[in-house]
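pasting for ref. prot 1 ->
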Amino acid sequence: MRIDAHQHFWSYSPAEYDWIGEEMRAIRRDFLPPDLAPLLTAAGLDGTVAVQARQSLTETDWLLRLSDSARLIKGVVGWVPLAGAERSVISRLERYCEHPRFKGVRRVLQSEPDACFSDDRFNAALDAIESFDLAYDLLIFARQLPAALPWVDRHARLRIVLDHIAKPVVNGAPAREWRAHIRELGWRPNVSCKFSGVVTEVPGWQWTPELVRPYFEVVLEAFGPERLMFGSDWPVCLVAADYARWVQVVEDLVRPLSPDERAAIMGGTAAKIYRITS
């Protein structure tokens, strides 16, 4: 199964998606399953994992309803408030896990201080996520990796998915610090990584395949094909690259690998981590 492990849907409104700034005005509109379906078909992809784009239970409910009618949505990574009372977190997870396509949870940590990693209520909620056999998507900037590493060790049995290779600034050769931290994360067998959201981390969005290749090589070495997955970050990626171009770039990057390794990155890893069977 070939899967896009990371994309978003939204019914756009300026108030609810205020993170889409003026420089991203090209994506200030609705993006729904009928918009994505022909792109998946053209790329030979069987489905996608829809990831939350705003921290709202309303959006999580909406994404799950979308998945009921759009068979291309193989899984949903939604938002659940993870800083509340443990009982309320468990109650919400119980309700969401009744839906077969609820596969994981994400909290937008990239805008939070490093102290969030030691918050007791947050960590208790992550224990609950693990107990429900869900994945947790880790959205951070590269500068947060040092704080995230001990947090990862605290949750050694939780399936953690690093989004967007930790969003380093993609400008020239990969920074030594980012390389070292990624390799250290790769030693943790419960952590996988999405090769997604890369082109939007290039200053001015002026990128080439040659620019992103060294970043791919770092995460491939750190995680191996069995813990690395392709993601488009559509429609956010559209400010820097159209869907077909990004798919082609990743296909070119994985071409030297074996058929099994290519299959893992282009869908097998996502199916395994998110427990997708059909």
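and prot 2 ->
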Amino acid sequence: MSSSERSPIWTRIAGVTVVSLALAFTSACTVRPLYGDAGVASGQGTAATLASIEVNPVNTRQALEVRNHLIFLLTGGGGRAASASMLLDLDVTSKTASAATVQIATDNEPSAGIVTMTAEYRLSDVATGEVISTGERAISSSFDRLRQEFATMRAERDAENRAARELAELLRLAVAQDLEREGRL
């Protein structure tokens, strides 16, 4: 018996079986948007919970870039949290390395660089001092090394700024995921 001669009943049984298995596997799933403001048991939405996070001051230019972008993302552009219920400590490090060495005329100089920015974070409850979550995120950004020193310094600074913006976005997502995992969103 070839596949074209199968009985229609077996085709229907196979179809019903596939649909039943799919429904069985998806019935236990609950999906909701991470940044939705439907509210939770605490009565706050995601935006309000994230806006209640205070980011501690930092001490380097790169860390300040990350902190400023992160505050903007957490508060929706509203500045610092008015009444902070959680505190976020950041430790940001930046490292620059040569990405490739290419023959330029007679010089054997690096022609591309990579800025790697890493942030370690710790989120804690202000009232109890309990550590809610910790983690680490890293991002890389490349830049061209040119013959002009000032142009190379500017390109490296721009790469640091790009990395800081992207790292702040990663941190916002990581903190939101941690809060969701802990049942605080």
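The first strand starts at residue 53 and ends at 55.
The chain has a mean pLDDT of 83.
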